[in-house]
Each structure stands twice: as C-alpha cells, then as structure tokens.
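Lab notebook, bench 4. Still working through the backlog of constructs that have no structural model yet. Next entry is a single chain of 613 residues. Request: give me the structure tokens for it.
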Amino acid sequence: MGKELLSAAAGETLLLLGNEAIARGALEGGVRFVTCYPGTPSSEVPDTFFRLSQGAPYYFEYSVNEKVALEVGGGAALAGLPTLVTMKHVGVNVAADPLMTLAYVSAPGGLVLLSADDPGCHSSQNEQDNRIYARLGGLPCFEPATAQECKDMARDALLLSRRIENPVLLRTTTRVNHVRGPVTVGEMPTTPAEKPFAKDPARFVPLPASARVMHARLLALLDGLRAEADASPYNIESGAGDTGFIASGVSRNYLADVLEEDGLTGTVRVLELGMTYPLPENRIADFLGSCQKVLIVEELEPVLETEIRALAQARGIAVEICGKSEHLPRRGEFSTANVRQAVRTFLGRPAATVETLAVPNDLPRRPPNLCAGCPHRAAYYAVREVYGDTAVYSSDIGCYTLGFLPPFRAADFLLCMGSSISTGAGFARASGKPVVAFIGDSTFFHSGITGLIDAVAYNHDILIVILDNRTTAMTGHQPNPGVDTTIFGDNPNPVDLMALIRACGVEPVKVNPLNHKATLAALTDLSQKHGPRVLVAEYPCPIHARRVGQAKKTLPARVAGDPAACLTVRDNLACPAFAMVDGVFSINAEQCDGCMFCVQLSPDLKPGKKEAK
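Model written out:
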C-alpha cells in the first residue's frame, strides 16, 4: 500500500493489512512523530511510515532500540506532538524502564505505544501477554480484532491519549497485525492544535516527593476512565439467554465464527471487549448479573478472567465463571477448533469432531534455513572449522539464529536481543571453556555495545563475531545506524562500526566471510589469543543489496566436478541452492546467488561449466 494511505478520502474503502490500518488510524489521529524498533509482527507499521515519510506531515525514525524509541517519542510527546511508538512484545521489556515512569510524568502531546504480541511464538522467543504491562504501568488499553478496528482504535487511542495527556497501550497479536480486510477510512485532520511545553519540574521531574503525587494523579485518572470504558463503543453486547461469553482481542473472531457455524448466534449472550483497561466494571457486572454462567475467552494469561472473578466476588454476583482452568489453554494461539471444543463442553454439548486441516500434515517439511549466498553461512563454516565442538556458542536474535541447525550447530544458548556477548562472557568466566558469541550488526547497535564494554572492563575471555550484513535483515531490511544505503539512497550519517568497537577498548579484525582463506586465517589467529576479541564478518545481505541497487557482480551459477565429492560440500553447507537431480548433485540456478563460496571448499567444485537443470 503506497500513497493511498495518505491520500484516500473519508468514506473510501481500502483493502489493508492490520498493520497498514494502524498506520492510517494514527494519521487520522493527527500523528506527527513516529519512532520504533522493528520486530515481527509489528514491522509493517513503521515500514509503512518509512515508505511514506518523504514529504509526509510527520517525523519518523528507526531508533537504535526500543528503550531509545520510547524515550525519543516521550520527549516529542512532552514537547506537544501526537506520537506513536511501535515495537513487538519483547521490545516492551527493553522499554519498560522509561514506560513505567512516563505514565507518571505524562505525555501532553499524546503517545500511543503499539505492543504487537505473538501468541504461538511465530517469530519470538516467548509469548508473554503485554496486557499485564497496561496494569503494571497504568495505561489504558485497546485490543482490536479486525483491520477496521486497527484503524479506528489507533486513531481513538491517540485522541484519548492527547486528551488525558497520558500514554495509551494499543495491544495487538500476530493474527490481527497480519489480517487483511476492508477498511473504511475517515477524515485526515488538519495540523493539531499546538501544546507548547511549559516548564513545570514538579510535574515532569519524578523526584521521590513529586513521584508520589504523580502516582496519585495516575490512579485518579484511571478511576475516572472507568466510566469511559463502560460507555466505550468498542465494548459490545449481543444475544440473549442466561449463558454468557466474554471475549477480547482476536478471540472475539474465533468465538463469533463458532457461534455462527454452530447455529448459536443470538441464543447466548456475548460481551466483546475492545477497550479492556481500565476494566469496564459496571458494564461487566450488569452482564454477569444477567447470566447463570459465563465463559471467558482470551488468549494467553487469564487476565480478564482473574479480574472478572474478583469483580463478581466483590459485588456479590452469584454466577459461575469459567475460563483457563476448565476449558481453554494458557499457552499458544486459539483457533476455531479449540474454541469450538471449549464452547461445546461449556454448554454440555457433544464434543466437536476433529476438523480436516487446510494443509495436510504429510507435506514435506521445510526447516528454516539461511538464504543462498548468505554471508553468515560462510562465517559459521569457518568458525566451526577452527573451533568445532570444543567451543560453546552463544547466540543472539536475528537471521543468524538459524545457525543453531545442523550442519553448523552454532547456537548453544540464547536469551534476548544483545545477550550473546554478556551471557557468553558470564559462561566463559564460570566454566573456563572457550566461548564464541555471534551477534548481528543491528543487534550490536541495539544492545550489544554495553556487553562488549563489560567484557573489556572485566577482561572476559570471549571471541565476539559480529555478523555485519549491512542491514536489519530478519525483520524486513530496515536501516540501522551503520548502514550505507537505504531504499531512499545513501545514508548521510552512518555510524562507523569499527571505530565504535575501538572506542569500547578492542582492536577489531575485519574480514569478508566469503573469502574463506582470509577468514580462516583470522579466526585461527584470534583463537590463540585471550581476553575479549572481535571479528567483524562484513558482507552485504544479497537480498538487500539487490533491493537497494548495490548487488555486486558475481559469477553466474556454474558447477563442475565429481558428484560424490560435491555431496560432502552440500552436507557441510546446507545451501538451499544445492539439489539432487536424478541422483546427481547439481545447483539450482534460480536460487544460487553466485557467491562461489562452495567452490573454495573443494577442488572438485569449479566454475566454468553450465549448471545442471
């Protein structure tokens, strides 16, 4: 979706991804400042703002990490600008320090934090439920279920935040971020009225004496918002009878599908919650009072269930409340299948028959793999040649996490973004074993720098391999502080990675990992030294290089040699361009990037003959 997001007139209907709809909603809410750290499933929101940013009425940046994104955005909101900050759910952990205080300090211009949660761990290391952050930080919370609601709630969350001068949480999940549906757009606003900053240290500087007052203000604000939650158009009641269902987020869709398909629509009561915090207590209490039993349908943690049980007890409402412990799982994504089972069991109906899967279980598996021509493959191969199984490999978040698979087996533990250096250093100190830590260039800028400084300060014995592919590849090739080129051309202010490492106290060694001989020599030399050492394996991601017009000219995909010998190279590299055709080793010319790394590994592989078809 291009300029239509900016130019579409009120009343037009666009077919939008949920994330694109969030961008349009923020624009309708008057957003003037957007910061982020990209992370699936949130990435398309900032990517959309980035593509539209030339001449657009807002400022945009890919911040160095989520904490910085929220702090920069918080500063803009303090200066009076309507602000959107986006990240995935684990990114909120990185931003939690300023987030907890920002709710005390306030955001006069308005600030919406998009937390894109990932039930089922589609692209994440955990499936935490960030509705809990709304409770922890005192943030009003919206949970859209459709592309239309993504647009409407993003707009209304920003307008609410600007009105109450406090941050608001927009909590989505993977299915909602990536749903595609019709969205009727609204008016694009004129420039919002200015809110010039007026110095008021007692309001904006949370010294202990001031913070106590700020906390009281925040609690009073939340109490006042309960009436708004009760009246919110996003909290919708339907149906009749004395059996009820309360659902939030994408679970509302699964429940609606099940009720319709089983012929139950209208015969049971349903309360859909779109504004879930502050809890619309009076609305829920009235609903509970009209039911004999209620099933709470929510993914992940029993957040609403716990609060609704407490509400019923406090108000003396005699109603049976069921949820996670009786009918629904506490982990993973919901589906119409498991919601149907829960609904039928709850209603005392026969269990549902096993549904036929849309995708058969017996299809060939496609394990995740590094792309053909990826320089990380060459780096892993060389490291394994030098260290083999004697080293312990500390991994990090990025494309290179795929090094955990055979044949490389170059990931023994991983915690979070930027943890490979710090965790690896601690392991090396505790065990006395050789440790190699892998981290990408974007991840190093994100949160690896402090780990390197710590390794220098305490002389940890660790080899750090920075896999610099000149982009943030895993989440969609967004720029990072060290890139040379973006889709808009040359980066005028790249950060010098080598100089930064030197400033931390280490003299780094840089190699082109596709030059196997030079990489092997550098690793061999570094393996004989002690203390913190850094190898920068720099070569651009071939996919990104093609996108920005910087792809280097390489030999076409050609191979000749003994098929039996070639199989050894195939098994040691696991390049997806390798193939077996009629029992003979070959190279798939459509996939091969022409990097010729495989040719360097075996005298039986040579460029020069036409590739097999």
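Notes after review: The chain has a mean pLDDT of 89. The chain is about 40% helix and 20% strand. Flag for follow-up if needed.
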